[in-house]
Amino acid sequence: MGKDSKEPNTVILGGLCVAVNCGERHKLYPLPGDYLQPSERSLTVILHQGSVAQKDPCMLGFDMVTCIELIEHLEVKELEKFPEVVFGFMSPAMIVITTPNSEFNPLLPTVTLFRHPDHKFEWNRAQFQNWALDAAARYDYTVEFTGLGAPPLEEDGVGFCTQIGVFVRKSLKNGEPEKCKEHVYKPIFKAVYPSLQDEKYLQTAVVNEVVRTSQTIARRLLVNRKSKIKKGCNDVETDCPFLASCFLKDVKDPSRTKADNPLMEPFINGQTVFVPLAKIFSIPKVKQLCGTSETLSKLITGKVALSNDGSALLIDTEYENEELELYNGL
């Protein structure tokens, strides 16, 4: 996550390098669903290329570091420098490290020595825990151990397939971070995910919610009006279609008031449903997105049909009637 975000920042060491090596950086781009439903939080993914044994200022300021199946790929000298760089220099509030559990390997039929040809070593539980406890004590962290991939019941003594260490810094780091001016990491990829922090995506989300809400209100009004008209027809004792039609013209919605009253309830006038913005703003989702009625008005002006004074959204009932007739015919 980019450091320009106000949300907690996370850096993933090692795991994203696979995407680079395989030429699959496109997998880091936002998915279509991210645009349809933007997150409330901002998210920027930046991919750097470098060595975990080197210090770079771009690695400072993160709240969490994850090293997923990384340390077993390190040479001896790199592994020796790893705690100093990650725990000492980067010093995030939390570090999560995973690595294969060699005790589980006999249960994997295709594994002979190591699980991957690039692995320099694979530790058993005691080796990993001794290394982790030493690093935690040296840099003032606590550590808890867990894992993924439980063994069969008859082999439960071998532990998890993957062992995990979760490190939490005991206290806030005192003093200024270590000075490091030299940039050794190379930025090779950046993707900014859509979020409601961007007014463009916020406007789209608000307009969609307003249209959906208004159409729902309009349909309810139309159903209510049709039920009143049907009731009126049953109450009219005449065989004359002309008299019946005259009666139906006089059937009125008691909630109908002047269109320029911002506190009014929605009503139908001719072929148009008037839905006051005050009514729309009372919807929890709309209020959450906009914050104020002024923001609501600003975001939807020019995007939806509004009354002359801008106090109500207009819905054409002709289209809504067609949908209702289709629905009733199913």
In words, what does this structure look like?
This protein has 330 residues and is of the alpha+beta class. The chain is built from ten helices and ten strands. The chain has helices spanning 17-21, 32-36, 76-90, 125-138, 199-235, 241-249, 277-281, 284-290, 293-300, 317-329, and strands at 10-13, 43-49, 64-68, 94-100, 141-148, 162-169, 186-193, 267-269, 272-276, 312-316. The strands form three sheets. The chain has a five-stranded mixed sheet, covered by helices on one side. Strand 8 and strand 9 form a beta hairpin. The longest helix has 37 residues, at 199-235. The radius of gyration is 32 Å and the shape is elongated. It starts with 9 loop residues before the first strand and ends with a helix.
| Strands ordered across the widest β-sheet | 1-3-4-6-5
Quaternary assembly: single chain
Mean pLDDT: 82
Cα(first) to Cα(last) distance is 49 Å
Task: Compute the number of strand runs.
Answer: 10
Number of helices: 10
| Shape, principal axes of CA atoms | elongated
Q: What order do the helices and strands follow? A: EHHEEHEHEEEHHEEHHHEH
Q: Classify the secondary structure makeup into a structural class.
A: alpha+beta
Low-pLDDT segments: 1-6, 15-22, 236-262
Biggest sheet details: 5 strands, mixed
Helical amount: 25-40%
